[in-house]
Write a structure and sequence with these properties.
The structure holds two protein chains of two kinds.
Chain A: H1 3-13, E1 18-19, H2 22-26, E2 41-43, H3 48-61, E3 65-68, E4 85-88, E5 95-99, E6 104-107, H4 113-120, E7 125-126, H5 139-144, H6 152-155, E8 162-168, E9 174-178, H7 190-194, E10 203-210, E11 212-213, E12 217-225, H8 228-241, E13 247-252, H9 253-263, E14 273-281, H10 283-299, E15 303-307, H11 311-322, H12 324-327, E16 334-337, H13 347-361, E17 364-370, E18 375-382, H14 388-404, H15 423-426, H16 429-442
Chain B: H1 23-28, H2 35-46, H3 54-61, H4 68-71, H5 79-94, H6 98-108, H7 110-126, E1 138-139, E2 142-143, E3 158-159, E4 165-169, H8 173-177, H9 180-192, E5 195-198, H10 208-211, H11 220-231, E6 237-240, H12 243-256, H13 261-270, E7 274-276, H14 277-283, E8 296-300, H15 304-309, H16 314-321, E9 326-329, H17 344-347, H18 349-366, E10 370-373, H19 376-388, E11 394-397, H20 398-404
Parallel strand pairs in B: 4-5, 4-6, 6-7, 8-9, 8-10, 10-11
Antiparallel strand pairs in B: 1-2, 3-5
Helix pairs in contact in B: 2-5, 6-7, 9-20, 11-13, 14-16, 18-19
Classes of the chains: A alpha+beta, B alpha/beta.
Chain lengths: 455, 406
């Protein structure tokens, strides 16, 4: 980037909002994935208008733009793969409005999910998309990746909560999308297209999200199992029984050991698997569901069951679950968190194959799963980047089977650079062609998040 | 395990769980100052990927050493140790600046420490606090007029005889020389809980202020003196009202005397006896006589080294709950640093002031008449910032709160 361009960026965003020192650039070269790439500059925009002006400048000067929330995604979506400018939204994080009557919030993209929840909770409201990384993940990033998380089984995913988006398009124009109504069928659903587009079609600068009334009661139950098969069978029976837990998570033995060392939540490290279940809703309903749930778990041979007696105990159990990915560094230096998702009835079959393939390829694997929606997170543990190939081979061998049973490469982490090489397994040529054409339509010069899953 | 603290840079998965929990990041919202980035930059420096160390030195100094990154790291990484180690490397290369040199001179020597405290008290209590100050004369992030009057140094070195248990009270610089009211309260409560208390006149600074400046190397002598003092007799407990001192003694001394078999043996014997005041008293709560009922609305600020390094958060709350007539209000904003961070506020007054201001606003929102904490540095910071914001709340150490009810 030449001096004139940098001076113009400084004029638009302000001196303190432009970073160009090598040390600063290093800090914006990564996210939660392995690959890193240096940007040429970093700007912290503070308004939609600033973003618009910057994108116009990118168009005329020909530099690339990669948007970044907190850089906690696991697929390299916010790594500036071809250099250029990182637009870091951490300083654009205001809550514009919380509407209690209509139950929605207008927020800027840099808002961290846990911070939003802290604001909503005293008002008796909640944004129920609960990510493992809610401590750091931003609303902008989770819209760009259509994040799902722990409670998708009951509450759905990010896309289900979007009422409106403000998007800066690649020509710098500002697009306002959405209505304040639950129903809206006027024209194509462009808003949904931006959700999950990984910053390749436009830059989200404001969002209107639906809120729910915070459930009056919640109960967190942990149940240990001597075999993965019985844990998966229990999950399937829960779903067939009509019980709808807010979350039903599987953690396998390897991961239990690591998270228990950190969270000290009283998990049994000898268990082959555990289920972490949350029931929420009206107090009487939660009580009734919990009786049915306990009986069901017993039938499947659960042992060491524990119900959190206090909110603090519930939080501790969730802390254990949410710590899964980062706690992996207790075992090996590098962890690749994968994201295949399958029909729930096939869970055990796929987990068995995953284990077999991991053993065959000589890579250590620990597993967690948002089992209620079939979302599997195998965590491949490796010592160095070269060993990445072993994890790749497992996926190469497993993916055709996953696709053949109606599953997907990625349920929620996104493609970014991490799964780009597997894209052809799932998307057919005509599907890919339409996507490429859409990309060309929205971003003819290819300045938005280049090097990502679609070029 | 890695030999060097900074080797943990290879183990960081860059999940970012530490980032938004870092008080400095929360103010600046720039990844560069986050714990995750500090580890990444140390790695870059070690690999020779940075042209020089100028910016890195500045980034690494911009850390409160509050250890909230450690508390929030499911991998259990000690980021602040990696930062301290790099600071030590830079100290060897560039030496200390004048502020740190002054600190080292004042804290490193027994007599000078006493003398400095004496002059500070004399000058401050007799001159500064009595002169009407229209301007907010800054002292780091604090303003001079909002610093409380300093107490006289603690005189009596033993308290009580004939009790079944004996405690060594590591008073620490601030409680011994400036906030001796806190030290007196600690002694009173420990006596009531069944401990005879001894303080050594030869106690040296625990060394933490120099350690976090990267000057562990010069602490060998004073650490050994302190270890000898605590090993001189058979104590049932070694306790301090300053969590930072306990962290130094309990967690950091091992690194300082590493390789010295004689002192390693001595230290291993006494480490299990060490506890923070709130921990020791909470564990001996049944020995305390019933506390007097006094009506008050109370909130509590978690000192960083107590909650993040020692993992103690329930014990102080247990003590507060034991006082009849108390209405307890949790402080909004969670266990976030008050912004003091040792001498952080002297180097980064603007950021520290913002952090302190937020803390003061949170205190105000509780409406608590009494704000408790368990650390002398937090106490000083909280007094200054609540005064600046004209918030009517009395800032006290839990020891004083309990002593008043005996």
């Amino acid at each position: 980037m030449d001096k004139r361009t940098l001076a113009e960026l400084e004029r638009i965003a302000g001196k303190d909002n432009l970073k160009t020192a090598l040390e600063e650039l290093v800090c914006y070269s990564y996210d939660g994935y392995l690959k890193e790439s240096l940007p040429d500059a970093v700007v912290f925009p503070e308004s939609t208008e600033q973003v618009s002006a910057i994108v116009k400048l990118a168009g005329s000067e020909g530099f690339f733009i990669t948007s970044r929330g907190s850089g906690s995604n696991l697929c390299g979506a916010s790594v500036p793969k071809k250099g250029g400018l990182v637009l870091a939204f951490s300083r654009m994080c205001r809550t514009i409005k919380i509407d209690r009557e209509e139950r929605f919030a207008i927020i800027e993209p840099g808002k961290v999910l846990d911070d939003l929840e802290l604001e909503l909770s005293p008002l008796g409201l909640s944004y129920p998309v609960d990510l493992g990384s809610s401590k750091i993940a931003t609303i902008g990033g989770s819209i760009a990746l259509n994040s799902g998380g722990m409670k998708a089984i009951k509450y759905g995913v990010t896309r289900d909560y979007l009422l409106g988006l403000t998007v800066v398009l690649a020509d710098g124009s500002i697009l306002e999308l959405g209505t304040k109504t639950k129903k809206n069928v006027v024209g194509y659903d462009l808003m949904s297209l931006f959700c999950g587009s990984e910053g390749t079609l436009g830059i989200i600068t404001q969002a209107v999200v639906k809120l729910v009334v915070k459930p009056k009661a919640r109960k967190v139950i942990v149940a240990h199992f001597r075999g993965m098969e019985s844990a998966c069978a229990a999950v399937n029976e829960v779903l067939a029984s009509g019980l709808i837990p807010a979350a039903i998570e599987i953690i396998d033995r390897l991961v239990i050991g690591a998270v228990e060392d950190y969270a000290k939540a009283g998990l049994d490290k000898a268990a082959e698997a555990l289920l972490l279940i949350e029931l929420d809703g009206k107090e009487s309903v939660v009580e009734e569901d919990s009786r049915a749930m306990n009986a069901l778990l017993d039938r499947h041979g659960a042992y060491g069951k524990k119900e959190a007696a206090t909110a603090a105990e519930s939080d501790k159990l969730w802390l254990a679950r949410k710590s899964a990915f980062p706690s992996m560094t207790r075992l090996k230096n590098i962890c690749i968190a994968e994201d295949i998702t399958v029909p729930v009835s096939r869970l055990y079959e796929v987990i068995t194959r995953l284990n077999e393939l991991s053993v065959k390829n000589g890579v250590l694997m620990g597993l967690i799963s948002h089992s209620g929606d079939g979302n599997l997170h195998p965590h491949f543990l490796i010592d160095n980047k070269e060993e990445e190939l072993k994890a790749d081979r497992v996926l190469e061998e497993l993916t055709p089977f996953v696709i053949s049973i109606g599953g997907t490469l990625s349920g929620e982490h996104g493609i970014g650079v991490s799964k780009k090489k597997f894209l052809g397994f799932q998307l057919k040529e005509n599907e890919l062609r339409i996507m490429r054409e859409l990309k060309k339509l929205y971003d003819p010069k290819g300045i938005l998040n280049p090097g990502s899953f679609i070029d | 395990m890695a030999d060097k603290a900074s080797d943990i840079t290879d183990r960081c998965l860059k999940c970012g769980f530490c980032v938004n929990q870092c008080p400095v990041y929360r103010e600046l919202k720039d990844e560069t100052v986050s714990p995750r980035a500090k580890l990444r930059l140390i790695k870059a420096y070690r690999e020779g990927a940075l042209k020089n160390d100028k910016i890195l030195r500045k980034v690494l100094s911009n850390c409160l050493m509050c250890e909230s990154c450690h508390k929030n790291c499911p991998g259990g990484l000690h980021t602040s140790d990696a930062i301290s180690e790099m600071r030590a490397e830079f100290r060897t290369k560039y030496g200390l600046d004048w502020k740190k040199k002054l600190l080292k001179a004042a804290l490193g020597d027994k007599r000078l420490r006493k003398l400095s405290a004496y002059w500070a008290r004399l000058v401050y209590n007799n001159l500064i606090s009595n002169i009407p100050m229209p301007l907010n004369m800054p002292a780091g992030a604090l303003s001079l007029k909002n610093i409380p009057r300093l107490n006289k140094a603690l005189k009596n070195m033993t308290a009580g005889t004939g009790r079944t248990k004996k405690a060594f009270f590591f008073a620490g610089c601030v409680d011994r020389f400036m906030f001796s009211d806190t030290a007196k309260a600690v002694i009173k409560v420990l006596n009531a809980a069944g401990f005879d208390v001894e303080i050594s006149p030869d106690e040296r600074c625990c060394g933490m202020p120099l350690m976090i400046s990267g000057d562990s190397a010069s602490l060998g002598k004073s650490a050994r003196i302190n270890i000898d003092l605590m090993s001189a007799k058979s104590y049932d407990a070694i306790v301090s009202g300053c969590p930072t001192c306990i962290v130094a003694l309990k967690q950091k001394y091992a690194g300082i005397i590493k390789g010295d078999a004689e002192y390693e043996e001595k230290l291993n014997k006494i480490v299990p006896l060490m506890s923070d005041f709130t921990e020791l008293v909470a564990n001996n709560l049944s020995s305390l006589p019933p506390l007097k009922e006094l009506k008050s609305t109370v909130t509590y600020h978690d000192p960083c080294h107590l909650i993040n390094s020692l993992g103690i958060s329930l014990e102080p709350r247990k003590l507060i709950a034991a006082a009849p007539g108390t209405v307890f209000k949790e402080l909004p904003g969670g266990a976030s640093c008050c912004g003091s961070g040792g001498f952080y506020h002297v180097y980064f007054p603007e950021i520290a002031r913002k952090i302190g201001k937020k803390k003061a606003e949170n205190i105000k929102s509780t409406g608590a008449g009494v704000t408790l904490t368990a650390c002398p540095a937090c106490k000083l910071q909280l007094i200054s910032f609540t005064r600046s914001a004209s918030i009517k709340t009395e800032i006290r150490h839990i020891a004083e709160f309990l002593a008043e009810r005996l």
